[in-house]
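TODO from last week: model Ion-translocating oxidoreductase complex subunit C.
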Amino acid sequence: MVESVIERITRGHFWDFHGGIHPPEQKFLTSNKPIKQLALPKQLIIPLQQHIGREGDLLVSIGEHVLKGQALTLSTNPMVVPIHAPTSGTISAIKMSVIAHPSGLSQLCVFLDVDGEDTWRKRDVCTDLAQLSNHEIIKKIADAGIAGMGGAGFPTHIKVSSKPDIKFLIINGAECEPYITADDLLMMEQSNAIVDGIKIIDRLLTPAVILIGIEANKPKAIKALQQATAAIEKIKVCIVPTKYPTGGEKQLVQILTGQEVTSGRLPIHDGIVMQNIATCFAINEAVRHDTPLIRRVVTVTGQALNKPQNVWALLGTPINFLLEQCSVENIKNEKQTVIMGGPMMGFSVSSELVPIVKTSNCILVPSKKEMPSAFEKESKEVECIRCGQCSDVCPSQLLPQELQWSAKAKDYSQLEKLNLRDCIDCGACAYVCPSQIPLVHYYRIAKAEIREQQQLDLKAEKAKIRFEARKLRLEKEKVARQEKHQKAAAARKAAMNKATPEATGAKSAVAAALARVKAKKASKGQSQVNTSDSQNDLPTDTAVDQKSQVATAIARAKAKKKLKEEAVQKPSTSDGIVDNAIEEKSASTQQASTDDKKEKIAAAIAKAKAKKLSKSAEAPDLEKDSDDTSPKKTVSSDDKKAKIAAAIAKAKAKKLSKSAEVPGLEKDSEDSLPEQTVSSDDKKAKIAAAIAKAKNKALAKANEGKVEVNETSLLTSTNNATEIDSKPLQPEKMVQNNIAESENKPVAATDKKAKIAAAIAKAKAKKKLKEANTVEENDRDGV
């Protein structure tokens, strides 16, 4: 087949494609003028995305100074090509700006303030391509940011990657748009560089034949390429008939090879690769001179310009700067129409700040006489008359009329069935439409909406996949954790069942932890001991119970009040006995406490309470006066009070006998007591009985001596014998003083009872001193 194609080309016989038109040419406006080098603009607006695919990651920030050729974005995906600084300057802004798009779409752009020095970054120039591997060449092409410059903008490094069985490499130099001459001038001026670029592609793809397709209306370009390729038999310069749109990829393939690329397929599927003339030049610049794609040839034309011509435009150059360089006539006229691209496939721009990008090859500024339809504010579109001319001229053999109906109805499924994706937006259908329907406009909008919907569907599908993967991962982690816990529990259980020191320690640790938890709960739920019910139930903590503090304060207040009311009083003969009884009660209470300080405080309180009782009784002299006035009444009242006091004292003694712990009586050299042979309970009972008897006798004598005993004071002093105070108790001295006082009283107890009481008090005092010394020694040892 290849041989037959070469033979046909040699004879000058080519195939034809369906449809096509012959619009009037206006190439003469710029075809005879060389490409002009322009001065540097003051500012460049560089879009991050200038090709098919997605934008790269930014490498620069605002305020950063960059050099010419420095990369501004990073390629992180095969469908991403980087952009570079067209000249040196400072990044003044990174923001959204209007780009070259039919809808006036805004996109993220880098604003570069040009410094005018045009300083290059360091470049690695390659003089011998044999030193580079194919992989290094492809990497240079990718790093240079080269994308298809014929209009599609497909990343070039993907198209030139090594592929097997490439039959034809087609270089597209047709340039079929009526006004555009950018490729024509480039072939005339840079034919050798273009051929060098073709050689690089040939090395990467190794095709069987290389075909350069040029329309017959470019004689100078044809001659230049024929001379540059004369020594290369593999390259064939093919002069094809002038017809629009011969420059379409599928159309040129069919003209040169006779193969029709069916719907849904690409030329690469049939072993055919196509590259644009400008792309070949850019490949040579990148591989040999380490020059990234930062400029391109742009045809600035139209009858509204005084100096239409082709210029080398830096990428990012605003359109208004190019128009100034070409002396536009109505630059201040707001109604002036500016078209990006040719009259057939171009579109009007919404702002003159729209920048030049990698796929921009023409800026058309027509006059009103030249293109009256471009200046009409309202469309003259009318209903379709179903003439069928659009179908006749369609190079892709589509049904433009039905496509337009489905596009207006947003019936995307029907558009898919009608093969809308095969439309190349050539505009031939709109050109011949008698109803002036902008068919291409409807197709472009429909394609954009379909593309957007596909992207949303793709994102949704990816999100669904991620969600399902996350859900599965979480379930696996949950199962793994459960298995891990089960294994750990089984291992602990097995280890504890073994008779090993580790297992014993683990059991002990578990038991200790459980015990601590139980103790903590018990300590929280335990109620404090009420000290008001029993005088012997003292708290074991070092801090004094709150209730005891309150009771102490109340007792002290009552004592102070009583002392103020009864300022002049004399001691009674019963003080010694009552004092001894209270001392015995205080000693029995102190015996239950382990704290030396509390024992001393309790003894001091007992002493104070005894003194209070001794003062509470009225003096005999004062009672005599009252007896003289009413003897009968006083005697009867005294008897009644004496009985009540005796009953109270007896009850207190019984209570003390049950609660107090009284140690065994010890023998003394001075006042010996009979040896005790009964049990400790009997001893306690006898002692309590002796105390009660002593109290009764004291009350009786007080009654006989006309001494009034206040039962309330006696009861209060008995109940509060253990109240806290700050002075320590000296039991021995108290016993001696009480004995001495009892000997001086006019009314004294019998010698036998006095000796018993003194012996009891002395024994208790000695026992207390001994326990106090023991507690002090224990405290020192603990410290």
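Done. The chain is about 45% helix and 10% strand.
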